[in-house]
Amino acid sequence: MKFSQYIGAGIVRVLGWKLVGKIPEDVRKCVIVVAPHTCIFDFIIGRFAYFALDTPVKFLIKKEFFDNPLLNKLLIKLGGIPIDRNKNNNYVQNVAALFDKYDDLNIVITPEGTRKLVKQWKRGFYYIALRAKVPIVMGFLDFKTKELGFGPIIYPSGDYDADWKLIEAFYRGITAKHPDRYNLSN
What's the pLDDT tens digit per position in 106-139? Predict the structure, then answer.
């Protein structure tokens, strides 16, 4: 066991969480959708879970977090990819293109796009997976059961509305840290 796995598993366990599910070994590239995302703890416990599972990931995070030089280096080391949410910069196309550059790539996306309450999820995760021809792995953190991990995998069909029904059905019963900030809406 690697040191990072040992530390990650230990922290997850000490905090009282249980890891469930996994990404199948034959899935070498995917978009991991993680919800609900209502507090910074979601990121912290999630990152330790990826260490515990020895699953290398990259994650999208607003570019403002990279303005601090110390945080910048840490975020890059952890797999952060800065996203400028203020411009129409073809980020779906640019992120999808990253899959051509790697043999193995898991990109974590929180479809709410923020820890605040949103009226509907952003669809970029879906179109990134569709364009890159990779599956969507449904990641979750359930504060009621204190379980986190991976649920079903779907391969985007191109029919967002039909695929959304599968996504929504999975996330419908999951409890956020701040339920008042969690809206599962298309």
Answer: 999 988 866 776 688 888 899 999 999 999 999 9
CB contact at 8 A, 43 and 64: no
b/e 174-186 (16+ beta carbons within 10 angstroms → b): bebbeeebbebee
Give the per-residue pLDDT at 100. Answer: 93
Q: Which two tokens stand for residue 6?
A: 């040992």
Query: Cβ contacts of residue 37 below 8 Å, gap of 6+?
Result: 43, 110, 112, 114, 115, 176
Residue 85 and residue 95: Cα distance in Å, rounded?
13
Q: Which residue has the tokens 């977090």?
A: 65
Q: Would you say 45 and 140 are in contact if contact means Cβ atoms under 8 Å apart?
A: no
Element (H, E) at 132: helix 124-132
Burial of 83 (0-12, 13-18, 19+ CB in 10 A): buried
Side chain identity at residue 121, one-letter code:
W
Confidence class for position 94, pLDDT limits 50, 70, 90: confident
